[in-house]
Amino acid sequence: MIIRIFQVTTHPGKEKEFSEFFHNTAIPLMNSTDGIVSILPGAARPETPNEFSFVMVWKDLDALKAFVGEDYNSPHIAPEEAELVAARHIRHYDLVEM
Questions:
Q1: Contact 18, 8 (CB under 8 A)
Q2: Sign of the Cα pseudo-torsion (42, 48, 49, 52, in order)
Q3: pLDDT of residue 75
Q4: What is the spatial distance between Cα 57 and Cα 4, in angstroms, rounded to a whole number?
Q5: Which of 47, 52, 64, 75 is the most exposed, having the fewest neighbouring CB atoms within 10 Å of its CB?
Q6: What predicted TM-score, i.e. pTM, was given to this entire model?
């Protein structure tokens, strides 16, 4: 399994708009995506009001690529969120079974 950590920093003043997108669009989309084993959405905190994240566990690399394409190391965002996002970061790890 693959762990995908996706972090977003919004433009100043766009936190509320992005939070609405995050809760109403991004979370439901990820919850309904084939190949995802689990998601852990992280909303902004008072000390970091413009930072959001997703920790996703994917079944395998093929499932991840089926969703984002061959360039899975590139942090893709939806067109409707592009004007809200100042920076984005992506990391991948192999899940360690315990």
A1: yes
A2: negative
A3: 82
A4: 6
A5: 47
A6: 0.89
The residue length of the chain stands at: 98
CA distances from 54 to 4, 47, 57 (A): 8, 18, 10
Q: Supply the DSSP symbol for 67.
A: H
How many other CB atoms are found less than 10 A from the CB of residue 49?
14
Can you tell me the distance from the alpha carbon of 63 to that of 85, in angstroms, rounded to the nearest whole number?
A: 26
**Structure tokens, 15:** 């936190």
* Token pair of 54 as six digits: 């997703």
What is the residue whose two structure tokens read 């690529």?
A: 65
Distances (CA, A) of 89 to 23, 81, 97: 19, 15, 25
pLDDT computed for residue 65 by the predictor: 94
pLDDT tens digits for range 39-96: 999 999 999 999 999 999 999 999 999 999 999 998 877 788 889 999 999 999 999 9
User: What is the amino acid identity at position 93?
Assistant: Y
